Amino acid sequence: MIDVFKGSFTQQEPIPDEGIAAALEVLKSGRLHRYNVVEGEISETALLEQEFAAAMGARFCLAVASGGYAMGCALRALGVKPGDRVLTNAFTLAPVPGAIASVGAVPVFVGVTEALTIDLEDLAAKAEQADVLMLSHMRGHLADMDALMELCTARNVKVIEDCAHTMGAKWKGRLSGTDGVVGCYSTQTYKHLNSGEGGLLITDDEEIAARAIMLSGSYMLYERHLAAPAAEVFERIKYDTPNVSGRMDDLRAAILRPQLRKLDAQCEAWNARYRMVEAGLAETPGLTLVERPEAEQYVASSIQFLLLDWTEGKIADVLARCANRGVELKWFGSDKPAGFTSRYDSWRYAPSKPMPASDRILKGIVDMRLPLTFSLQDCALIARIIRAEVSAVHQFR
Ligand SMILES: *Cc1c(COP(=O)(O)O)cnc(C)c1O
User: Fold this and answer.
1) How many helices (DSSP H) and strands (DSSP E) are in the chain?
2) What's the CATH fold of domain 263-394?
3) Side by side, which strands form the sheet with 106-110?
4) What residues flank ligand 1, with Cβ below 6 Å?
5) What is the Å distance from ligand 1's center to 29 Cα?
6) 178: which DSSP letter?
7) Which string of DSSP letters, residue by residue, matches 186-221?
């Protein structure tokens, strides 16, 4: 009998009871808007910002409507203007070039390495074209952040970090999102905290923080923030910063606060699942696992492997055979965007030149989610299925 996996790749854990109780309190109060507080009351959103800033060791934090909004807001707060060029990863998801396009700027795509991180040589070659790098830690893989920051600092390139997949991850002990001038996070259902939709932005720069808060739609109520700079900083920027509404509401903040308290344990749980699948796939002929550097403390809410130099037909065969046995794999190599996957040349609003070295890697990237509803036994079974199907197809290459 052949094993079939019966679980769901899109099923997350329930919201913790504490979060449900806090959400009910907000609902009963009727005060869902973050600035709708009674005398002496502090909103759930302001508290979440204070707690997230503390958890990340950042001076300032702003909660917003989505991760994509956080990135667009960061670009605006940095003064990126229509027509400006912004460096970003060729291997990322659609909201990243989308955030750049949302301010009228133009993405300059930088290649991807076999480690699935941004190619620092290509970055060095293209750095002079832009003042800002929107760095996407795609699928949780951290580039050598020391080398990257050195390169960008030397060339006066400001770094915004897209930490949609690295909340809680570290490079040499430094939390992801704290090396760049701004760190952006998503609390969309498939990320590390789940409020359906939502985003967070951190920075240590008081002017960027004040601008981001004004941009998010604070009107003149910015003094109701706890993780914000002093009022005098707002005085300097408030009349020339537009309101581009994208606030978070108290309902989402209420369900996020208890989740934030569990973040470290959740990260451990993801990594245990990752290591189980990784071990099960080790030394599968034809399959390349992604090596994780010693300096990287990852949070693996998904796993990637490479079927390098395989034909499209064989890769499609592997995906179909795994799907038949209940294992949902995503392929980043397709020339047509499918589901959540796409590649730099599928964003036709953004110009791009072919990048053969990156194309070879993109063609081979296979991706799989690791929701915490999977048990370790589930992960072992999934790895056996992938191993068997990759081996079967590989034999006949
Ligand atoms: C999800 C995601 C985002 C944006 O998050 P939303 O909250 O969905 O807007 C940004 N970057 C990457 C890599 C993502 O996966």
Assistant:
1) 13, 14
2) Aspartate Aminotransferase, domain 1 (3.90.1150)
3) 60-64, 199-203, 182-186, 158-162, 132-136, 85-89, 106-110
4) 66-68, 92-93, 95-96, 136, 138, 162, 164-165, 186, 188, 199
5) 31
6) S
7) E-STTSSS-SSS-EEEEES-HHHHHHHHHHHH-TT-
How far apart are the C-alpha atoms of 42 and 49, rounded to whole Å? 11
Share of the chain above pLDDT 90, in %: 95
CA of 138 to the centre of ligand 1 (A): 10
pTM, entire model? 0.97
Taking the domains of the chain in order of start, what are their residue ranges?
17-261, 263-394
Q: Which residues contact 387 (CB under 8 A, 6 or more apart)?
A: 280, 281, 284, 287
Q: How far is 302 from 369, CA to CA, in rounded Å?
A: 4
> How far is it, in rounded angstroms, from Cα 284 to Cα 385?
12
Q: Which of 166, 147, 184 is nearest to 62 (CA)?
A: 184
CA distance 387 to 287: 9
For residue 39, the CA-to-ligand 1 centroid distance in Å is 36
pLDDT tens-place string over residues 315-360: 999 999 999 999 999 998 887 888 877 789 889 999 899 999 999 9
Report the top-level CATH class of 17-261: alpha beta
Q: CB-based contacts of 29: which residues, under 8 Å, 6+ apart?
A: none
Judge whether 17-261 and 263-394 match in fold. Answer: no
Closest residue (by CA) to atom 6 of ligand 1? 67
pLDDT in tens, 53-97: 999 999 999 999 999 999 999 999 999 999 999 999 999 999 999
H/E segment holding residue 383 = helix 376-395
CA 283 from chain centre, in angstroms, equals 29
Residue 138 to residue 293: CA distance in whole angstroms: 15
Coil, strand or helix at 149: helix
Backbone torsion region of residue 289, taken as left when φ is above 0, otherwise alpha when ψ lies between -120 and 50, otherwise beta: beta
For CA atoms 141, 114, 128, 79, the dihedral sign is: negative
